[in-house]
Amino acid sequence: MEHPPLTQALIAAFPGLSAELQKAARYVIDNPRDVALLSMREQARRAGVQPATMMRLAKQNGYEGYDEVRTLYADAMRALTGGFATKAGHHARLQQLEGEEALAANLFTAIHGQIQALTSPNVLRTITVAARAIAEARRVYCLGLRASHPVAFQMHYILSLIGEKSVLLDGIAGTGPDAIRYAEPQDVLFVASVLPYTRQTLDLATYAKERGMRIVALTDSAVSPLARLADHPLLAATESPGFYHTMTPIFALAEVLAVLIAGHGGEDTLRALKSLDDYHTDFQTHAAERTPVPAANGIKAR
User: Fold this and answer.
1) Residue 42 covered by a domain
2) Of 41, 80, 98, 123, which has the most beta carbons under 10 Å away?
3) Domain that holds residue 140
């Protein structure tokens, strides 16, 4: 659902909501399909609030009850290509499966849908604008802690192949983030974090904002703390049928972003990659594929 009905209104009102209403609002923002499909009680359970809280959220947005909100979202879903019945039938078939194979199938299906959602025109426009901002930066500071560390490292690694302006905020003895003290307003902070957000990540992003840096944030919700700090928030779903949230869509988003950034480098990128190839050849970095040696007298060489 590319334009969920209440998303923009809920994002605008989010800072002024109570803690319980924020939980309910976040659920509606992050799970528009569930708003149409699930009962109010089930949505409240998943959001971690009482059903009355969902009702208060609806009334605060000008509706008599939550059923009106569900109808609004159901109508939006029926307008989607592919249709409500197709998606609901596919979900029902998956629910009939049992055991580990069913869980694996659910995981792959969820990840596929989350990555497919990143191909919507609005998301693609956001990615290209963010790529241009990073490409034009004097220096790029890459930050991702805990589960988000591989995302930041992959961005830093790809950028390091095509130039020298990437700085990974990671290091031994807890000194990794110290390098950001050299940052200037013409620099960009590339940062990734998803729920539950790492406190140090948010502190460093706030520090970067105060120094006038632009922030490109990969996160999981329009109301995440990082999204509210970022100049270029890039959002990807992380919910999973398993016990642990998936980082695959966020990781894919970072890889696509890095490739677009490389494309902005033109001849500079080509020269950097040629230099990299020469370096790897000199040091025989990669194991070459071995060609089998013909055996003598019909005996296989070992």
Assistant:
1) yes
2) 123
3) 121-283
